[in-house]
Amino acid sequence: MEELIYGELHPAVASTLNNLADTVLEQGETAKAAVLFQRAMETNEIVFGKDHPDIARNLNNLGRAFKEMGDYDGAKTKLMQSLQMKEKRYGEDHINLIPTLMNLGDLFNLTKQPQRAKDVLTRGLKICEKKVGMKHPDSAKLLRLLGNSFYLMGDLATSEKLLNKSLDILEGVYENDHPYILATRADLG
Fold it and tell me: pTM to 2 decimals?
């Protein structure tokens, strides 16, 4: 609809493509989501230039899609580009780094690099604690991923402690059947 109103090269079109890609990715259509994320990024690059904050967000989302497709090298490249752009624009401890740090941590867990995941996720958790507090859903998501890192490292006691802490936060924010709660419970076994 936005394309009919604004034409193909408009920020509203890029935003709609990004939102559609998010929905498609949640439905498991990873390749289609990657194409839509790529189109959103290309539109934003033309409209805003390559150094705009929306490009960093697009790179993060594209990295997330690649991760879900199993293209771990492609995911790492996009996520690192996103992180570098965000650090350059916002600094080392800005809240806008959190989504990319989460995705990198998850990627490192998936690729059996739990120490790297732990480092990235601990950094994200420190930012969350400082900027939004430990009762924020992003803190819970980071704790869950960090719990998975400790599980992969064989530290089951720390893993369980972090997963329970994540679950406590999530239960205070979401309904009991929310996917984040269900996933955390599944991680706990």
Answer: 0.90
